[in-house]
Amino acid sequence: MINSSLKQFSQMLAKKEISSVELTQVFLNRIDSLNPNINAYIALDHAKTLAQAKAADARIAAGNVAPLTGIPIAQKDIFCAKGWQTTCGSKMLANFIAPYDAHVITQFDNVGAVNLGKTNMDEFAMGSSNETSYFGSVKNPWDFDRVPGGSSGGSAAAVAARLCAAATGTDTGGSIRQPASLCGFTGLKPTYGVVSRYGMIAFASSLDQAGPMAKSAEDCALMMNVMAGFDERDSTSLNREKEDYTRDLNKPLAGLKIGLPKEYFAEGLDASVGKVVMDAIAEYKKLGATIVDISLPNTGLSIPVYYVLAPAEASSNLSRYDGVRYGHRAAEYTDLNDMYSKTRAEGFGAEVKRRILIGTYVLSAGYYDAYYLKAQQIRRLIAQDFVEAFKQCDVIMGPAAPSTAFKAGEKVDDPVAMYLQDIYTISTNLAGLPGMSVPAGFSNGLPVGLQIIGNYFDEARMLNVAHQYQQVTDWHVQMPEGLA
Amino acid sequence: MALSIEDIKKIAHLARIEVSESEAQVTLTKLTGIMGLIEQMQAVDTTGISPMSHSQDVVQRLRDDVVTKTNERALFQQNAPATADGLYLVPKVIE
Q1: Contact A358 B35 (CB under 8 A)
Q2: B5-42 in CATH: which number?
Q3: Interfacial A residues in 67-106 facing B (CB < 8 Å)
Q4: Any idea where the domains of chain B sit in the sequence?
Q5: Which ipTM did the prediction report?
Q6: Mapping DSSP to helix (H, G, I), strand (E, B) and coil, where does residue B84 land?
Q7: Structural domains of chain A in order of their starting residue, each with its CATH number
Q8: What is the model's pTM?
Q9: pLDDT tens readout for residues A316-334
Q10: Any chain B CB within 8 A of the CB of A238?
């Protein structure tokens, strides 16, 4: 039953085959037995969770049902949820109880979904392995010696180990798609501005975007119907008409033009990952798609540009953690400046400090033009590459990550090697485009994701493209042995 | 531009993050590696390219000037390290 789709869970609830309380308890039992080892969740509150499930059952009994009513969802710990410990994976916020709800949380509450708990993540979403979390690393359910990816590593492990029906994540440089690839499920980063960032703890505000992490494209579409929408409390939320993201799922793919960027299959890509991706492309040809060779010439520059812009924005966003209004405060200090410096030295982990320092440096007097301005100019070149590419194709496909899940500890001391994990995902964040990772097979028993990049606001088509593939393959329903 | 230990100390001060001598050394090594990656940008000719700060070409919305928030000071201050009489306490800054 735990492997059911969101639609199937919804039907079981509608037919009263199971109550939301019973369904929620099934997941809580799995969490209680598996989470102490996997460490996917960092905050659990069974009483709160079951109270929501009970309220959902009352809603269902009253006939007031939405597609996700009564379904237990894991929430990345980057989203403020009123009354819940909300830490963003940091010691800085280890004692922070959110006094309000993020827009995303409100949206799930409004449809009567159940919050199963808050999931582990890299500290302030800075990382690609979940190893920078103050609350410890997360195990990849496919191989406990390996990382789940990051930064949404807790949500990723929770989806892969079926410790939730679906989860939320956020993606600043690949934090939904890379873990989706490494843990073998479907994850979507929407077009920038589609999901409100209100109450989502800020990392790099011009890049951060929330999205669904779930088993299938159909599940992601149902999640998007809840998560997306205009919110006046986020100044970058786009005021667009409400969409039904399931509307195109069943369209045939005949005539679909798929662009394959040569830069995504060049040096740096693990050959066995490349083979799985090309096998998936072959499947798409059978479904009637045609292949177009394209080029995204500035792909290699996306990492240097990102590691100027994201730290610059982070150094500004994280200046709020000063030990005054909330969060950690050092126990001993001599004066106000010393309190700030000691509070921040104690509250932030090594990677977060590195990024704040890089951001401070590139924004400091005398360096602005050489780094920040230059990066913003190249960001435009990267975005223009996609504009040119989408003149020739409907969607772009390639790998989501250069390798399968790597061993814990392997890259944690080498920031530059870690940053290269996001080589295929960062450019879409810089351009603001939607991207997703879809399970496409295995290499040595480890999952491989196929990345699908769409044009602005083309999520419904991308979900259609992924859904049709999932009608003829079963990679997305496979789960790790021993966890069934 | 090679980073020096003095640069690390200066930016750490600007960022209000205390670093010890040994931490400064380690940080210098890691940041030098990251800046090496970043320097790849300098090979690109960006003459005449307008900087892109945001992916959507939108203007800031304005709203009606009406009250939207209620006073939740007591709730918010539950998260504060030190408060008294509804105020946030910080070390003395004026002698």
Answers
A1: yes
A2: 1.10.20
A3: 95-97, 99
A4: 5-42
A5: 0.96
A6: strand
A7: 6-255+464-477 (3.90.1300.10)
A8: 0.97
A9: 999 999 999 999 999 999 9
A10: yes
